[in-house]
Design goal:
disordered C terminus; Rossmann fold; elongated; alpha/beta; single chain; disordered N terminus; 21 strands
Length: 600
């Protein structure tokens, strides 16, 4: 739609010069050419819901449309309330029609009688025309046929073709496609099809300067640079009449008009929401009355908005106040001081860094100070059990100033963390020489190699060379079917606890009298048996942490044996839906001293 060079009066008087007739669209063109603000209406759907004392369901994407058939008098009354408030454009209550088509629902089952969506379109237009044909200022109002973004779908071209037939019987003054988000190749094709009807087309986007924006102000996707801006230029070349943003919170509007102006000479507009639909009905976090809304409208006008209205939650009160405040204004050229370009670092990060997430010790948790660990091929990769032990060591700063032993070191995760915690020395042992080598490499990688030693050790014949002040162990624990092929000198592990039991027996030789051992045990091992062995060795234990450990393939392959063990002992695991989940416990083991540490 090209702007007319004619200049007319505001809506409270005849729009055309004396002796000259004019259409509502021509009147809007004249207003824009004269730099007068064009006022859209507010939210017909939410006003209708308030009148009915009801609220649409969140899953009903056609909310408000049924009123066109079931409550036509209410629809007319709402339209007229916006006409009286000073609106220059009235939107038909047809926003949900495209969704009905896309959902293959040509009939409205909740209506009092079956109605095809094309009949709803015709009726929506008739009601808007009746509301503006009152012999007063309403006759100057343009009627915009509202469509939601679902018109940009596989059914879109057919919908547009059928709408053209509807418009032949009685065309709106313009088509307003609202709440668009993504711009695809199909979007351009749909817009071209709508323009071919001969009716002017306006497009409105649910966008802010950070990209695609939702009704709650949430953002989707990363920075797009100027991609959206270039699409605006293309829409202008196609012949679109105006570009707007709508259905986003008011605080997300700032900066959008001035940014869009860099890409297009088309009239620009805004009509944000003042609330949202919830499971409990319509909700508004802030009660914004007419005066507050008028103040916001003036700021949008200062930024260059030529069209102003309201979306969800904006009623006649707000539109009337905005109409009065904007009556004698002209669009400004104000730009926000802050660069809101989402592709720039300055826009994506606050100018003052936010407080860091820290634990009780003041240690930063984001990003988590996880050691730099490389898992070499063939070396045991840390599992949930290993992470459980690591988290406790990290959180509590365990090992500072102590001589430590890591049994079953794998890639060296626990060894490295003990070194980072300030251990005087950490000795790491593992059956696999590659694991010992990997541990030394990772210790060097994290700057603690001067306090770490590692060796390949078979735990069964091993005799400790010294007693350590701290021992950590995250050992292999898997019940084994006795009928599985056996090629090792190690005994078959029917109960899955051979290594844990052997470690407990070694504690008197490996742990100093006042030392502490942290042992990870899975729930598929018996708690009762662990308590018995610790008692025999003269130790107490308590659970200091636990975590959940979903069965990996290794455990799933031994499901039958695990269930045998559980039937014969107090071992257990959880079943959640189709998943098997065990619990990993972290035991703190100390020599029995009577200091109040009970057996877990």
């Amino acid at each position: 739609m090209k702007q007319s060079k004619l200049v007319g009066d505001r809506a409270d008087g005849p729009a055309a010069v004396e002796g000259e007739s004019t259409t509502p669209v021509e009147r809007i063109e004249r207003m824009l050419a004269a730099q007068r603000c064009v006022l859209l209406d507010g939210a017909t759907g939410t006003e209708l819901a308030q009148r009915a004392g009801d609220s649409p369901g969140l899953d009903d994407q056609r909310w408000g449309v049924n009123a066109v058939i079931d409550a036509p008098d209410d629809v007319i009354a709402v339209h007229r309330s916006y006409v009286s408030a000073g609106s220059d454009v009235i939107s038909t209550n047809t926003w949900g029609l495209a969704t009905a088509v896309r959902a293959h629902a040509p009939e409205q089952p909740e209506s009092s009688r079956p109605v095809h969506w094309m009949d709803l379109a015709r009726q929506g237009l008739r009601l808007a025309r009746e509301a503006t044909a009152d012999g007063g200022r309403g006759e100057d109002c343009a009627v915009a046929f509202s469509l939601n973004p679902d018109v940009d779908s596989d059914e879109g071209p057919e919908t547009v073709r059928l709408l053209a037939r509807v418009f032949e019987e009685g065309a709106p003054d313009l088509v307003l496609v609202e709440t668009l988000a993504l711009v695809r190749d199909s979007t351009y094709a749909i817009v071209e099809g709508l323009l071919e009807t001969g009716v002017p087309v306006w497009l409105s986007f649910r966008r802010c300067r950070q990209g695609v924006c939702g009704v709650f102000g949430q953002h989707w996707g990363g920075p797009e640079g100027d991609a959206f801006g270039r699409s605006l230029r293309r829409f202008e070349k196609l012949g679109v009449g105006a570009l707007l943003v709508n259905c986003i919170p008011p605080d997300h509007v700032t900066g959008m008009v001035s940014w869009m102006r860099d890409f297009t000479d088309l009239p620009l507009g805004v009509y944000p929401n003042l609330g949202y639909l919830s499971n409990e009905g319509w909700r508004s976090d802030t009660e914004i009355g007419g005066e507050e809304y008028a103040e916001m409208a003036l700021r949008w006008r200062e930024e260059g908005a030529q069209i102003v209205g309201g979306c969800c939650g904006v009623g006649p009160q707000q539109i009337a106040a905005a109409s009065e405040a904007l009556a004698e204004t002209k669009p400004g050229q104000w730009r926000p001081e802050q660069d809101l370009d989402p592709s720039s670092d300055r826009s994506m990060r606050p100018r003052t860094p936010p407080p860091a997430w820290r634990d009780e010790r003041g240690v930063s948790l984001y990003p988590l100070q996880f050691p730099d660990i490389v898992c070499e091929p063939g070396v045991f990769v840390p599992t949930q059990g290993s992470f459980l032990v690591w988290r406790y060591l990290f959180r509590e700063g365990v090992g500072a100033g102590k001589r430590c032993l890591d049994i079953g070191c794998g890639s060296g995760l626990l060894t490295v963390q003990l070194g980072l915690n300030g251990a005087s020395h950490v000795h790491a042992i593992d059956l696999d020489q590659a694991a010992a080598t990997s541990t030394l490499t990772n210790a060097f990688r994290n700057g603690v190699s001067d306090r770490v030693s590692a060796a390949a050790v078979d735990l069964w014949p091993w005799v400790p060379e010294e007693r350590y002040e701290l021992i950590v162990a995250s050992l292999y624990q898997t019940p084994v079917d006795p009928f599985e092929q056996h090629v090792s000198h190690r005994p078959l592990d029917y109960w899955g606890r051979n290594l844990v039991d052997h470690l407990i027996r070694l504690l008197p030789e490996a742990l100093s009298g006042d030392g502490v051992a942290y042992i990870m045990q899975l729930s598929i091992l018996s708690q009762q048996r662990t308590a018995e062995l610790l008692d025999e060795a003269g130790y107490d234990a308590r659970v200091v942490d636990f975590a959940f450990f979903q069965f990996s393939d290794m455990f799933s392959e031994r499901q039958e044996q695990i269930e045998r063990v559980e039937k014969l002992s107090d071992a257990y695991h959880l079943k959640l839906g189709g998943d098997d989940v065990m619990v990993a416990y972290l035991l703190e083991v100390t020599a029995r001293t009577g200091a109040g540490t009970g057996v877990a």
